[in-house]
């Protein structure tokens, strides 16, 4: 049965729920057991599908290292756009974090994380824009935002307003962190390249249908947003990490297409196939990047 998220008063919330409140069973079929919906780190020669889970865990462990969580000194961690809670779970069960808070707009993701039964995790169905720590004692020792920023700033805003909104995002993260804390951000970014008609049609589908109003940021929007609040430690372009994940999910979906259609219907499955292929080829053709940005709160 197709999952239909009831409408709220906020079109940005509705846009997220349109995509992220498709059933958890469908997402499990698509993403595999790790339920990560972002790029992975494959080793040379590894099979795309067979090594999907290892690739995702390798990515999470690398991020934990970059944020000094593995070193054991970090007690409280924040994941902004936390999906199905895999990073929160790994930080608390493998890397010694004592408390992990995740923000998402999806109620089905919240229910899934509750089902993990991990008492160290708190999930809030709340936008990053509305979240604030209550006092100094709630501030975090590390934060992550993994392929979620692409949803956070509306393409309907004029460029100047978008810049302000990215600035506000970095201010929100900075306000939640202790000085010296790390923030690891993984996000697609767009290159200003000439586009042909087919690509324009595909981008229109992404921005108007599947992820209404989504804006893939430009690198300069991010660096301007972070300036003065964070020191940029490192920026790495990991374009293949996301393209490979999209290709792996497409294989998993093709292998169990009939089951997926029985769960969510042909229209939903066809939508996912189209959007995953668009992301895969635009990353492969270098229209989009997938930057890993490591920052330190000043
Ligand atoms: C592509 S998923 C990535 C999930 C997870 N980080 C991962 O790597 O698997 C994007 C996530 O961003 C969340 N999200 C979108 N807009 C949000 C907002 N305004 N505030 C908080 N979370 C948001 C979605 O609910 C979803 O959990």
From TrEMBL:
Full protein name: Cyclopropane-fatty-acyl-phospholipid synthase
What family does the database annotate? Belongs to the CFA/CMAS family.
Q: CDD domains annotated for this entry?
A: AdoMet_MTases
Domain of life per record:
Bacteria
Keywords annotated in UniProt: Lipid metabolism, Methyltransferase, S-adenosyl-L-methionine, Transferase
* Entry annotated with the keyword Thylakoid: no
Organism equals Streptomyces cirratus
Please give the InterPro entries that the UniProt record associates with this protein.
CFA/CMAS, SAM-dependent_MTases_sf
Which PANTHER family does the annotation name? CYCLOPROPANE-FATTY-ACYL-PHOSPHOLIPID SYNTHASE
């Amino acid at each position: 049965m197709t999952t239909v998220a009831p409408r709220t008063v906020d079109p940005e919330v509705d846009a997220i729920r349109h995509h992220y409140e498709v059933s958890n069973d469908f997402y499990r079929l698509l993403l595999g057991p790790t339920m990560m919906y972002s790029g992975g780190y494959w080793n040379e020669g590894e099979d795309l599908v067979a090594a999907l889970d290892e690739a995702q865990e390798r990515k999470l462990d690398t991020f934990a290292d970059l944020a000094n969580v593995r070193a054991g000194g970090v007690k409280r961690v924040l994941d902004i756009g936390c999906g199905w809670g895999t990073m929160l779970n790994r930080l608390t069960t493998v890397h010694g974090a004592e408390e992990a808070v995740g923000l998402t707009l999806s109620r089905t993701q919240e229910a899934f994380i509750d089902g993990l039964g991990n008492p160290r995790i708190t999930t809030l169905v709340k936008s990053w824009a509305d979240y604030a720590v209550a006092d100094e004692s709630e501030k975090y020792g590390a934060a992550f935002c993994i392929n979620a920023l692409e949803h956070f700033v509306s393409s309907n805003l004029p460029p100047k307003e978008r810049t302000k909104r990215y600035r506000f995002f970095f201010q929100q993260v900075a306000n939640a962190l202790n000085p010296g804390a790390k923030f690891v951000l993984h996000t697609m970014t767009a290159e200003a390249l000439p586009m042909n008609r087919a690509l324009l049609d595909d981008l229109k589908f992404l921005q108007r249908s599947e992820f209404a109003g989504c804006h893939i940021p430009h690198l300069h929007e991010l660096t301007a947003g972070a300036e003065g609040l964070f020191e940029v430690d490192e920026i790495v372009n990991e374009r293949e990490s996301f393209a490979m994940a999209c290709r792996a999910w497409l294989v998993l979906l093709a292998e169990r297409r009939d089951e997926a259609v029985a769960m969510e219907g042909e229209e939903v499955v066809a939508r996912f196939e189209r959007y995953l292929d668009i992301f895969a080829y635009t990353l492969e053709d270098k229209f989009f990047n997938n930057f890993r940005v490591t920052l330190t709160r000043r």
